[in-house]
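Moderator note: this is an archived Q&A kept for reference. The question asked for a predicted structure of one protein chain; the sequence and the answer are reproduced below.
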Amino acid sequence: MSNLMSVAAKNHDPVVMKYSPTLKMIETFEQWVDSDNLKTYDWWDIWGSSYGQWSKGLFVKHKYIGAVAVLPVVLLDIFWPSFRGLFAKKRTYPISHAQVGLGYLNLYQCTGKKIYLEKALNLVDPLFKMASPLAKDLGWGMKHQWMTVQGLVPADTPCNTQTAYAYEFLLELYNITSEPFYLESLKKIAKHVLNDFHEWRDGDKLVSSYSTGDQRRVINANSYRMFMLIDAGIRFNDELCLEKGIATLKYVLSKQGSDGSWVYSEDQDFVDGFHTCFVLKNLYKVSKILNDASLNIERAIGKGLDYYCENLIDKNDYPVPFSVKPRLVLYKYDLYDFAECLGLFADMNIKRKQTQKILDFITKNFQTKKGWFSFRKFSFWPSKGIPYMRSANSAMFLALTKVMKRDFAYPEELRKVL
């Protein structure tokens, strides 16, 4: 990538220089990843600790008393985030391996440079080693236990929100390499997604649990399941996969509010930015697979996108965390919101001018000199914090490569030096 930047600068190539901020962010991030091997602390480390679990559990049951218990943890996390090093270890995360792998494949498809394909392939074995032992076939969970409104979910409990990225990564590897191993892996994932989750039917609609270990009905998690089941149903000519996928699609569509929004879940009615993007991008993927106008997917996407742009983008054209808050929110901007906003706009090929403005803001305010991106921005505290791969450095890398893949037309003379 540095060769491309230097050649572009020397020859003042207008196409390349137009996108040089994106290229520079990708290049700098790559250098950091190469040195740190995708291993970081996690934002959730504090809430996975004994005190974190107890205080959050108390907050869920008794909001005001619990607020007193969680306040010290919140303040420590803002002003001294590296304190988690006293009790937690750096780890790798399956969703991040999959997202970075997808990013490398985007770069390979843009440039034709085999080093990016090799980097993606190097992530496959570690990703499979992180597969959940609790999945009957093949699935992934989060590497920490977490407290929810329905109780504690153990680490490695399979979740569609994590498995979907592995599915997409292996799908892209199959599309590029035609290796049967990846196709067989997709079949195993589809079997897990089809059979291992709690389900509830309501007429022609189907909803499943967030994970295999709880019974929360979360909208964005069902949108990931919807995508995998519909893709697998068509790809493998599996009628049950396709039927359940379309029934889940109808559930997701039914949960869209009259204003175009989606609340987080049936028992949590906040509306936030990156989870809204999750739903929209999965609906968009499914619309391209099904191409069925009778399901009114395009209408739901348009309505949802209008809500998102009007309520989850601020007057400066930057994505904000919430339109309907679940609690007091101290931070102004969150990296995950920026990553998913960029990715959505790139996937749908929309908002090009706004995308460039967001990229400029990320360059100036989120990316550090070492290459990693800050997690959150506070109006009252300028610290960059510490890097979290899962929240949301890997998602940002993937989003940047999507922007590059969408917008960058490589001149043949520059392609040769990549």
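Archived answer notes: The first strand starts at residue 146 and ends at 148.
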